[in-house]
Amino acid sequence: TYFPAISHPEGLPLRIQDANGKDWVFQFRFWPNNNSRMYVLEGVTSSFSQSNSTL
User: Fold this and answer.
1) Distance CA 21, CA 24 (A)
2) How far apart, in whole angstroms, are the C-alpha atoms of residue 16 and residue 8?
3) Contact indicator for 26, 47 with CB cutoff of 8 Å
4) Which residues form a coiled coil (predicted)?
5) Domain total for the chain?
């Protein structure tokens, strides 16, 4: 599985289903970083703490 291509820093919502069938929605975006981009999934930390999961 690959992440979708994004062309705007605000990105797009990304829906992911876990092994239990629960849907999670994260914001897949990037920050310009010198001559490259730093890609992030926003909302991951709060979602994992809500589900009592550990990384």
Assistant:
1) 10
2) 21
3) yes
4) none
5) 1
Domain membership of residue 3 (yes or no) is no
**Best CA proximity match to 45, nearest among 29, 24, 31:** 24
Whole-number Cα distances in Å, 50 to 1, 7, 20, 28? 25, 30, 15, 19
Domain assignment present for residue 37? The answer is yes
Residue 45 lies in a domain: yes
For the segment 2-31, what is each residue's pLDDT rounded down to a tens digit?
899 999 999 999 998 989 998 999 999 999
Start-end of H helices in the chain? 44-50
